[in-house]
Amino acid sequence: MKILIDTSYFLPLIKIGIENIPQTTLVNLLAKTSFEYFYSNLTLFELTAKGLKISSQENIITPQDIRIGIDAIQNDSRLVEKSFIDNPLIIELASQLKAIHKDTIDCLIFATAICICDCIVTMDVSFFDQINKVPSLINAIRKINENFHFWFNDLSDDLRALKSIDS
């Protein structure tokens, strides 16, 4: 299974803790060698932006911490970087997602996962819930990747698919 890992799971690499999620979640996930793991190039931007925001407000994170975290991602042979321009459908789907979700980067990361992978590991349950309220969006996603799944939070629950649409 091809899994795209959402940005939140990489936050501990730049010294940002995740509330209610064990620090070892990413390590435990990557230990499962039967999966292929991907991240969006936008994750590197998002990590940098969040790290710089916190470093300018508090002295907890340094620019070096951010660089070390990004290097750890880029140099981990288990992780493959994917770009939001790797598939022409990504921007098209992100545009449709943007109609229900204000965060453009989230829309591009989710669209990248849907167009390139089998699953996204994310903490954004509310985005999943928003998608499930729009039958036309569910159909658009199914047209691109019929068996796409979502895996949430600490990954202790089963993968979830989008709801069925009654024809």
Oligomeric composition of the shown chains = single chain
N-to-C SSE string, H for helix and E for strand: EHEHHEHHEHHEE
Query: How many β strands by DSSP?
Result: 6
Structural class: alpha/beta
**Share of helix, binned:** 40-55%
CATH top level? Alpha Beta
What percent of residues are in strands?
Answer: 5-15%
CATH architecture label name: 3-Layer(aba) Sandwich
Which overall shape is indicated by the principal axes computed on the Cα atoms?
globular
Query: CATH fold name, please?
Result: Rossmann fold
Low-pLDDT runs of 5+ residues are: none
Instruction: Count helical runs.
Output: 7
Summed up, the domain count is 1
Mean pLDDT: 95
Radius of gyration: 16 Å
C-alpha termini separation: 29 Å
> CATH superfamily, called what?
5'-nuclease
Main sheet overview: 6 strands, mixed
Strand order, sheet with most strands: 3-2-1-4-5-6
